[in-house]
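[09:14] KT: can someone run the structure on this one? pasting the chain below
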Amino acid sequence: MIEKGIDLMNSLRSEPRNSESGLFLFVAAVIVFPGVYWIYSLAQGLTWQFDDLINLKGLSDVSSRTGLVNFVFGGIAGPLGRPVSLITFVANYADWPGNPWGIVQLTLVLHAINSALVFLLARRILLSSHHLVNGSVLAERLAALVAVLWLILPIHASSALMPVQRMTHVSAFFVLLALYGYMVLRQHQGGSVPTLAGMANIAIWLIVTGLAAAFAKENGVTVITFVFLLEVFCFSSGWRGRQMGGAGWLWRIWLMLAGSAVALAMVWYAAANWNVITENFKLYRGYAWNEHIATQFVITIEYFRQIVLPRSALLGPFHDNHTLYDWSMAAPYWAIVAWCVFLSSAFWLARKALTPSTRTLGWTGIAAVLWFFSAHQVESTIIPLELYFEHRNYLAGLGICFWLVLLFNHGVQVARKKVVPYVLAVLYLSYLIFSLQQVTSLWGQPILAHDLWQKNHPSSIRAAQSVIQDAVSLGFHDAAFSFADEFIEKFDAVDVAIQMMPLRCRYRSESEQKESFDTLLQQVEKMRTPGGIPTGLAAFGEAVRDGACAGVDEAQYHYFLQRLLLRPQVQHATRVRHHVYYELALMAKNKKNMSGYIDYLQLTFWDFPTISVAQIVAATLFQEQRIDEAIDWIDRVIEHAPNRSLRMSWSMTLRSMRDALLGIQQSLIEARPPQEIEF
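[09:31] RB: done, structure tokens below
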């Protein structure tokens, strides 16, 4: 049954006769890309965002070999470190830390390159299938429209304008490159079952590009699912229902694995790490895993709406306050029903529609939804990531764009007055361009943007922190304190309370400092999520140690740090706990307690290994004349480096220190009087 419908999209059996045209690239170079760049240039006044510092601060050290290795291979954005993405930031060495727009400019170039790959991929699909379009000129025009539509989607703005999210673009580049190469290799096989040599070529290509995509961003592994969808909807008529030899069965087994590999890997990951996953949801995110899944179904509808009919005021980087749903609420079920209605309607069109064009539109709708959910199967399922991020739709929206363009083409074919679909298409593209311009111009005015985003997301911690920072930078201290006090009281926001303490130490009375500190201690006991604690902790500690906080002495601050450590949320979040340990280390140093300083620094290192902390520990042990311990510490640090590349880099840096310590130790032994040497 389903095979008859898929036949309408399956005729990619031979290499297209015409070579890839440069028409789109020429037009894009002259008109489209400069126009889109101009729209994005309205955001030149943008500022750094919340994930930029922790991921990009190492850029300042890449002028040295050790600094370069530490930056590229010491990434913490994902379990693979994302070195392929990080190495692209080296080109922006001169832009850190004063020019976020410089980083965004290079990302926009990559966005343009990706849109060219989208054109080539869509063109190859359309040009090779007479059931989709009739004629190479039409195929090229529709492919160009797919690429332009995808290029100007307003939902892509945050992935381009948040500097660190270049990782999304780099990973997508290798995914698109992998898919285009796959199409070329399959068409060289004539659309039938590939030979063993053909399978080997395909495997090598996908392994190389797939690994590059995954090491740019872990979501790149979804490329294998996209390959499965291309095979099913584009090539299956070449081998479906035919006698299968050994190569045929091998191909079918490979396809089944390709279609299910990512989903099975996610199931395996969940089963193997279930306790850790549930603890991460509960202690770090502040909600249960089943609430996360329920909310994701609602969010997918929101993503779809923002792709098709974006509302610029609701697009932005701050979605940490998204409404949480559970399965006792109606919204998740309505979202599931909405997707089922869409899919069933598309399936009905594919099976029952009278014209081939309408049936093809139905199958394309099914493919678009499957593509959309395939793109979300890693970041929007069981992994304890934040609920909502717009950049997750960078590739997910591609299938929807393809479907919208074929919907337009269908309208042209069936409309009595051909001008109507063209007018609607122009109006729709104009709406998208206007929405994109509204978004980018807002990013270019960060103070206005923060205020608007905070009003649209009134419970967002990040939006509140941005508004407070803007008010303080403009000298509106009373307004900052008034807003912060109201926000802290309403949402028990320990993050914001910590952020405000160094400002209170500087601008408020001693009695108010004491009152706010007592309130802060109470809020620590009510903590739900610990992620925002480091935002103001270092500045608070510095104010206390410098004696600039009359209402909070060192003993009180030390007690506060200990209370933080007792909270299970902080104990579970090692990257947060390491900040608390570091503050305790600085407190011990301030009291001349060097043993405590060393102990807390070591705890800091094991929670979040960095060579800078390792070097401080070794140097302090040497200063305390604990040379044996310093040598042993260096050996342990090298042995427990996060990965092989960092181990080599750290070894080159620390071995010289170790050799120097050994030399000093030997000199001290030789300088001892004979009677002091033990035998």
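[09:33] KT: thanks! The chain has a mean pLDDT of 88.
[09:34] RB: yep, looked fine to me
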